[in-house]
Amino acid sequence: MNKDYRCILCGQEKNGIPVKADYIINSIRWFKRNVTKNEKHYTLVVCKDDYKKYYKARSSFIRKQVGYVALGIIFTVMLAITSRGNLTGIFVGVIITLFLYFMSLLSYMPPLALPHEYDAAAK
């Protein structure tokens, strides 16, 4: 077993399906490299034992993200209508939408690095 692989759910050193490095993973790695100076250089994976747990958590994250952003957009539109196009109302609505988006990241679960044919078959 390669010591460079680490499961994102159980935290153990296991082989599995690799996690796609997106802007959130890259931001965390940048922070660990430049601020804490404690980068471990692990390849993040989801092990076979935790795949069902991962799938539920990923589905929940996507639902929350879509729901929060939709709620923020609805709130922004309502603020724009009630403020009669006042830029302050629209600005506050955008800030609230961004806040709700960042709230959805509290349950963040990264996507897997799968070829497109496997990704479509999993849905």
Structural account:
With 123 residues, this protein is mainly alpha-helical. It has four helices and three strands, in the order E-E-H-E-H-H-H. A three-stranded mixed β-sheet has the order 1-3-2, with no helix packed on it. Helix 2 packs antiparallel against helix 3. The radius of gyration is 19 Å and the shape is elongated. It starts with a strand and ends with a helix. The relative contact order is 0.16.
SSE topology sketch:
Blueprint: E1 5-7, E2 16-18, H1 23-36, E3 43-47, H2 51-82, H3 87-104, H4 116-122
Helix pairs in contact: 2-3
Summarize the structure.
The protein has helices at residues 23-36, 51-82, 87-104, 116-122; strands at residues 5-7, 16-18, 43-47. With 123 residues, it is mainly α.
Helix-strand sequence: EEHEHHH
Helix count from the secondary structure assignment: 4
Radius of gyration: 19 Å
Low-confidence residue ranges: none
| Widest sheet: strand ordering | 1-3-2
Which structural class do you get from the secondary structure elements? mainly alpha
How large is the share of residues in beta strands?
5-15%
Largest sheet: 3 strands, mixed
Shape: elongated
